[in-house]
Write a structure and sequence with these properties.
The chain has 8 helices and 3 strands. With about 160 residues, it is mainly alpha-helical. The protein starts with 5 loop residues before the first helix and ends in an 8-residue tail after the last strand.
């Protein structure tokens, strides 16, 4: 193994940070082949790279096949995508409590019901379980996406 000075190490690390996907893995594999005898463990120890990524890059270089990254599948999906009936159930329940803007200045309907009450009604009336439904905050965001605006409850004056 050739000893690399700090300037060369930082150059390799900077170059790897600027690349993504299969190009990054290919670069890391090329450095591992040229300077670390094709060892992903040595590249991990010296440069701090993820060993699995370097191994995948080495495999891609040997086989000639490039693995496809599926970045779109990452993250949490919208509750409406997970529970397709949820949007209809919310709309059906909230329409009874909605009213148009009194001054007709916006296209949104004002819901005279809270997101917490909508969530509790979905559990009680529509048969959803507590764990199945999203949180109160997410129910409020869904209501906003559906075109409803929630009004804050005012305290009654004595």
């Amino acid at each position: 193994m050739m000893l690399l000075n700090d300037a060369v190490k930082s150059t390799f690390q900077d170059a790897a940070k600027k690349l993504t996907g299969h190009r990054k893995r290919d670069f890391m594999a090329k450095v591992a082949e040229d300077y670390f005898q094709g060892s992903a463990r040595k590249a991990e120890r010296v440069l701090g790279w993820n060993r699995k990524s370097v191994e995948l890059g080495l495999h891609e270089r040997r086989s000639g096949l490039v693995c496809v990254d599926n970045y779109q599948a990452r993250g949490k999906h919208k509750s409406e995508d997970i529970l397709p009936q949820l949007e209809e159930d919310i709309r059906g329940w909230v329409d009874h409590y909605a009213q148009a803007d009194p001054k007709f200045q916006s296209v949104f309907s004002y819901a005279r019901i809270s997101a917490r009450a909508v969530r509790e009604a979905l559990i009680a009336q529509k048969g959803y379980s507590e764990a199945q439904l999203p949180t109160r905050q997410t129910i409020g965001e869904i209501l906003n996406r559906l075109g409803y605006r929630l009004k804050k409850h005012k305290k009654s004056n004595p």
